[in-house]
Amino acid sequence: MPPELEALLILTRQQFPALKEAACEVEPILKGGSDRHFYRFTWAADAHPPMVLMVYTMARRDNPKFVPCTHRLAALGVNVPTIYAFCEQRLCVWLQDLGRDDLHASRAEDWAIRRPLYEATLREAAKIHSVNVGSLTSDEIAAMEPEFNEGMYEWEQNYFIEYFVRGHLRRNIDDQTAARSALAQLRQRLAKLPRCLVHRDFQSQNVIMRDGAAWLVDYQGLRPGLAEYDLASLLFDPYVTLSRSERHDLLSYYANLRGLNLPELREVFYLCAAQRLMQALGAYANLSHNLGKTYFEQHIPAGVLNLSIVCEEAPELAPLLTLFI
User: Fold this and answer.
1) What is the pLDDT along the chain (325 residues), one digit of tens a residue?
2) Is residue 141 exposed (0-12), middle (13-18) or buried (19+ Cβ within 10 Å)?
3) Same-domain pairing of 89 and 112
4) Of 16, 226, 228, 285, which one has the greatest count of Cβ atoms within 10 A?
5) Cα 307 to Cα 236: distance, rounded to the nearest angstrom
6) Which of 63, 96, 129 is the last residue of a domain?
7) How far apart are alpha carbons 150 and 9 in whole angstroms?
8) Interatomic CA distance for residues 160 and 154, integer angstroms
9) Residues in CB range of 98: below 8 A, 6 or more apart
10) Based on the domain organization, do 41 and 123 belong to the same domain?
């Protein structure tokens, strides 16, 4: 066993003295763009169920919020991993191992197989979105990541312009007054809508499937925002291909689940999809060009295609096409 893994196993045995003599296999989990590191511990016989060790840093302000967010979501009845142990001093969290089968893994299956998986995922989202921000105290809101407001939406838009439009496409957009006006109107309109709790990174690789049920991970960005932002993250996920009719089916399912007006939901959904996809494209460009994670560049074409579709669905977003087409 490599020295790094051996050291983590020793640390874990110290945290769980009953496992001191139990044989164990330790395996790094290699995926995602996070600065956190994950390791799977598989114990011999019935010594302990498999667990995942998350080792995080303080480089991102949302990293230490994973544990309190886990407790908050569990209290809402959301399927999240059990925390077996937490060492704040060492920045380590030992978690229930939910398995290897994320929603993304089903991307090539027939829709008849995928649809119930997405519906199960939306049922978990609805539990989060049922929390109106008005029901939260100021201390509860302050303990989360900053809410989605006009400033946050503007930050995402500028992130897209800096890293994707200027950095990746090498375009000067100083004369794009119509596009900039559309961006301003988009963020102002979204900022006026009532907020609920949102996952913030609600995409297929952050949903683990177990026996037909959806379990959520990577939710430390929990904050006040718009449910449609989460829906857009899932249904316009550049990692997965969904048809227009499939997205319509799932939006209809969600609207029925929560008793919402479907046309109104769809209208805000497309606005949020533009916002989310711009953020994602900015992230892909930044990760691939500046942070050495070049494999994210492969998702840019799908992100561009999705953003094009969104801008065609919502006429007020059409000026944005000039930024990237």
Assistant:
1) 899 999 999 999 999 999 999 999 999 998 766 789 999 999 998 899 999 999 999 999 999 999 999 999 999 999 999 999 999 999 999 999 999 999 999 999 999 999 999 999 999 999 999 999 999 999 999 899 999 999 999 999 999 999 999 999 999 888 899 999 999 999 999 999 999 999 999 999 999 999 999 999 999 999 999 999 999 999 999 999 999 999 999 999 999 999 999 999 999 999 999 999 999 999 999 999 999 999 999 999 999 999 999 999 999 999 999 999 9
2) middle
3) no
4) 228
5) 9
6) 96
7) 45
8) 10
9) 52, 81, 208, 210, 215, 217
10) no
Cβ atoms of 197 and 135 within 8 Å: the answer is no
Burial class (CB in 10 A: 0-12, 13-18, 19+), 20: exposed
Cross-strand pairs, 102? 208
Distance CA 55, CA 91 (A): 6
The pair of structure tokens assigned to 284 is 């892909």
> The domain containing residue 51 runs over which residues?
3-96
